[in-house]
Amino acid sequence: xxxxxxxxxxxxxxxxxxxxxxxxxxxxxxxxxxxxxxxxxxxxxxxxxxxxxxxxxxxxxxxxxxxxxxxxxxxxxxxxxxxxxxxxxxxxxxxxxxxxx
Length: 101
Fold this sequence. Notes:
This is DUF305 domain-containing protein. Helices cover 82% and strands 0% of the residues. The model has no long low-confidence stretch (mean pLDDT 93).
């Protein structure tokens, strides 16, 4: 996931930044859920994973559709993008740190 974060496209539009970051995040949630369906044994966890797959796939479709629409007329604001990415990086660092617990 860290590699996806570092490679994310930065178009200059914070809204597009968000969409470009969220799509691989959702894809990772799907992959993690598929993994637990394959190897997990707890039925409650497996039911939750199946729900996550369904919901995240729907979310990916919506995110991708909106991304394609916004790409046609991006709202370039490098200052806003810089502020957004600074806050995003702090959120990302917290997520990675919490995942190591």
